[in-house]
Fold:
Amino acid sequence: MGATQASAGMLAPYTEAKDRNSLFLDLAVRSLDLYDEFVARTAHDSGTSIGYNRSGAIEIAGTGERMTELRDIARRLAGRGVALEVLDGPAARAQEPQLGHDVAGGLCIPAHGYVNALQLARALSTAARCQGATFLDDGRAIRINRRDSDLLVQTERSTHTARTVVVAAGSWSGGIAIEGAEALPVRPVRGQMLHLAWKETAPLRRVTWGEHCYLVPWDDGTLLVGATMEEVGFDEKTTTAGVQDLLNAACTFVPRVRSAGFLGARAGLRPATPDAMPIIGWSRRVPNVMYATGHFRNGVLLAPLTAQLVADALLSGRIDPALDAIGPQRFGDL
Structure:
């Protein structure tokens, strides 16, 4: 019920990375490469289905200036060997007939897609139980203290003893007091998202990005529109302004969104860090505390890689070289 419940589940590293550093792109691509097996294994172990689609994504340019930027992005991605297609206006509308006539063009990347984040989270929980995991509903974790070689985790209702603790509390990670360590520099950034009932006979074929929003067409014919980015603290409510802004942005390049039915709006708090990169790795101050948080707007995309990095470190002591750059040490005594 944190950021995940308001996530569109987009798997689009090459689009997400356009304003990020090369390290983020490397991590995001590694994680995307794990997704087919990740979803298949989770669905098998849980015995449930997971909405998962890799039919690609198209980023739309509304102006010639933006189209020039997309061509530059395409040149850089092509240099990495990424399969892509640069489209002019008519070609973009041929790919997505619902686009408006003033679209200048687009960039299509076939490797992209989406996963139903809620279904994935529930399936992971079920799969974990099937593998012997126990889930406790004890309210929020408040603090972690050391007692000899053990760790004491105090929640709102009780205290648990553990040899190893993973701090994965999303936007609330910084509020957990850890004995001997500074507070995590993680803050909430609200993201609002809309759920619409598409009424057209030809819905969007793939994830579609505009300059101010994205649209994700689910297999059931509904449409997700997201997402705002708001620095409002721990305020999880949806707002009329957020709904209006998203609808206006979506209608700018897909005019027939105006005829869609409104199923609801959701808001989630993304865990942001000062450098917009996740915090994954062992604490240097508290033995056997592992951090896995701060994924901002890419928690679903980075989920399988995060799981692999954390499990390898905990179970076999294998420390991936990437942890040198995304570990907690870059923010002080953590």
Q: What stands out?
A: The radius of gyration is 21 Å. The longest strand covers residues 261-272. The chain has eight helices and 18 strands.
